[in-house]
Amino acid sequence: MAIHIKNGIVIDPKNKIKAEKMDLFIKDGKIVDEKAVKKEECQVIDATNKLVVAGGVDMHAHIAGSKINTGRTMRPEEMRVVRRVADTFRAAVGRVLLTAPAIGYEYAKMGYTVSFEAAQPPIGALHTHEELDAIPMIDKAALPVFGNWHLVFKFVEEKNIEKLKAFIAWAIERTKGFGVKAVNPGGVEAWMYGKNVRSLDDQVPGFNITPREIITSLIQATEELKLPHSVHLHCNNLGVPGNYQTTIETIKLASKFSNSKRQVLHVTHVQFNSYAGSSWRDAASGAAEIAKVVNSIDNVTIDMGQPIFGHATAMTGDAPFQFTLHRLTGAKWSNKDSEVEGGAGIVPLVYLPNNPVHALQWAIGLELGLLIDSNKVVLTTDYPNGGPFTEYPYVMAMLMSRKMREKELQKVSPYVQKATGLAAIDKEKTLEELIHMTRSLPAKILGLENKGHLGIGADADVAIYDLNPLDVDTSNEFEKVYKALKTAVYTIKGGEIIVKNGELVKEVWGRTYWVDARSKVDLEAVMPDIENYFQYYSIELQNYGVEESWIRMPERIVVG
Amino acid sequence: MWGEIMLILKPKVNFVVTVEAEITPELATKSLDEILNFKVYYGKNLVKLGDLFEVKKEGDDKKIILDGDFSRVKWIGCRMEDGEILVKGSVGTNCGAYMKGGKIIIEGNADDWLGAEMNGGEIVVKGNTGNLVGCAYYGDATGMSNGKIIIEGNAGNYIGEKMSGGIIEIKGNAGDFVGTEMRGGQIIIHGSCGFVGGDMRGGEIAIKGSFELLPAFIKKEEGLWVGDVNVKGEGKIRAIKS
User: Fold this and answer.
1) What's the Rg (C-alpha) of chain B?
2) Contact at CB, B140 and A75, closer than 8 angstroms
3) Other CB atoms closer than 10 Å to residue A214's CB: what's the count?
4) Does B43 reach chain A within 8 Å, measured CB to CB?
């Protein structure tokens, strides 16, 4: 079916369209030229005085896999919020920690059409994909974690980049993953001995390597494999006051590499890695220093990891950090071990405005969003670590309005006034910048050419909001902006209308992207090593991984 | 027992599935029409109170009599703040949950989750109760924090889990895991019970009959133990001298 979106005000940063009144045409799931459709056969959507943009792209959220499921199990109180009883759609429950259908439905209602699971334990790949297959409405993919895998350590120690490349290609294929994620490289291995690593040059227990070597080797391998997405890094020392220096050192590791298409390193949820000071008593913001470095380097991008006041659940592959957090807050804790590949932890959390530390984290996230060039910072809450993704419109409105920030600053601990520079920042990002930070930029960072924009040939993922960009004053009308962006008037996914006036109208199933990088590597050379390591696994090599035919709608992206 | 009876509810049928009816004494102050149209769940269906119960209204005071078998009716007195409820038979689960004030008298037995997360008021049960009296709902940090629950018969397992205040008095026996993770308040058991006080941080459990003591409690004097040492707790377990 063809669709004609009439008279909308389009913002499409990738195609340099800044709030222009124009029509869009959709056919066979793609954006097409006006000539490609017969107008009389089109379903017409009147978008007069409404904002028309590409569907949102969430490049870092925890939406599927053993971690989020353990979180659900240990937080029955989260499941008391009933969002939807089963009717033509499935039942959806959850306060912040949502069930799989609820995740798809809430993204769709907000006008988002892509979300990436940001940390897939490789041994949990089957579970992750089963769960991704239960999320309707959106396209998705998963990033397997490599930063603490013994086989990675072995090849880094041997300085054998060819074998590392072959192993990564093998592992991404087996896990049906999309790219290379690294979580606290070396630190989770140290956690197996009850320790952590504290700098880029600490030795990883049992291996003659350092986090620095792991990160640079992974970047080199990822670049040589020509993966669509760069290394996606959760830095060492996350959540530790004073860690902003480690973060800056880590970002500078990227300067040795280059790629004409995209960044070579994406540093994720940087808010959690931007603390100055020596303890939580004197902690302060290191966001300005980090912003300076990111703005001065061309090949690094970041995402915010913005905390939202209210309930959240900390869940990361950074098992030692999760234990520290549990000791700090006294909240319940679950530790996950993924054999020789790494681990994870889960701790419930509530961000309180009058808590100085939480207010500090909240302010740092916003500082990063404001101070960093809009072409390098993506809007995320690191769902559910910083809070619900459903509050992205709050973050968008905050970055666009100083007045709103001043109002919100009055509600939070006065500690932020002395420990951060947020109050003094008068920068107000434009709606176009925010559309870029939530659509075209994450799509570019992930290497998804048909996402995040509305050019001819792009996937027909479109969001229409009740907001006229030619008319709205984003500095002053922040309440209107927030309300409009929170619920889409229309969400179109792959050419089908799935949301109308904020209500679900149709359930669709998105694709699961995975990357096949096996063509230019010598898999046979690396198989004896892999077979050797499988004596330490609880399962046999032939039972490891996910077959493409098991996935509902797989889409293979071949590179090399 | 009351001079004037204000609102009487009587089941019309034997319920095939459970009813979820958040009936509080506040309802007695409403007009008969509003009472008949009060929404309750019968299984998964939302129905009117008047469809399931005979309603008799004799005044506007905050007093309700539940006449008959209410053992399949859940959430009676949930979140009530004042007034009185008299249950002439037995009552279903979650009776008096989140209750803040007033009084509930149950002449028969009460099911599980009686007075869960209760914060004030009084519940008296003439018969027996099920499990999880005065507990925290799964996932919540704090159970009963104030008020009083008196059980004339026996009680089940997990009594007063995560309790932080108030009193639970059991005239008969109780099951296992009494006062687990308790932080304050008092549990008095006139009969016997099983394991008591696991992960207890504060408060007191007094028992007249026999009970099972965990090794994580230290004897302070004859008939007084303090623990649970695993959580550096200072909860007291006291044997009541007969």
Assistant:
1) 19
2) no
3) 27
4) no
Name the minimum distance, in Å, from the CA of A75 to any CA of chain B: 6
Beta bridge partners of A144: A120
The percent helix, strand, coil of chain A (3-state, each to 5) is 40, 20, 40
For residues B168, B171, B172 and B177, what is the CA-based torsion angle, rounded to 10 degrees? 20
Which two structure tokens, joined as six digits, stand for A353?
């405005």
Three-state DSSP at A543 gives helix
State whether A78 and B140 contact (CB < 8 Å).
Answer: no
Q: Verify whether the Cβ–Cβ distance B138 to A76 is below 8 Å.
A: yes
- Reduced to 3 states, what is the DSSP secondary structure of residue A464? strand
Helix (H, G, I), strand (E, B) or coil at A286: coil
The number of residues in chain A equals 560
On chain A, the residues whose CB falls within 8 A of the CB of B137 are: 77
Query: How many A-B residue pairs are in contact by the CB < 8 A criterion?
Result: 8
Q: For residue A76, which residues of chain B lie inside 8 Å, CB to CB?
A: 138-139
C-alpha distance from B43 to closest chain A C-alpha (Å): 14
| One-letter amino acid of A226 | K
Which pLDDT tens digit goes with each residue over A240-263?
999 999 999 999 999 999 999 999
A347 neighbourhood in chain B, CB within 8 Å: none
Asked if this assembly's ipTM is beyond 0.90, the reply is no
| Contact B232/A at CB under 8 A | no
Burial class for A384, CB neighbours closer than 10 Å (0-12, 13-18, 19+):
buried
> Count of CB atoms within 10 A of residue A393's CB?
21
pLDDT digits (tens, 9 = 90+) for A441-491: 999 999 999 999 999 999 999 999 999 999 999 999 999 999 999 999 999
With contacts defined as CB-CB under 8 Å, which chain A residues touch B138? Answer: 76-77
Q: Nearest residue on chain A to B136, judged by CA atoms?
A: A77
What residue ranges do the domains of chain B occupy?
A: 112-239
- Written as six digits, the tokens of B201 are 């941080």
Q: Would the CB atoms of B138 and A78 count as touching at under 8 Å?
A: no
Residue A265 to residues A290, A331, A503, Cα–Cα distance (Å) = 15, 33, 38
List, as one string, the DSSP characters of A305-368: ----SEEEEEEES-HHHHHHHHHHH----EEEE-GGG-EEEEEEEEE-TTSHHHHHHHHHHHHH
Question: SS3 for A74?
Answer: helix
Domains of chain A: 3-54+451-504 (2.30.40.10)
CB contact under 8 A, B137 and A77: yes
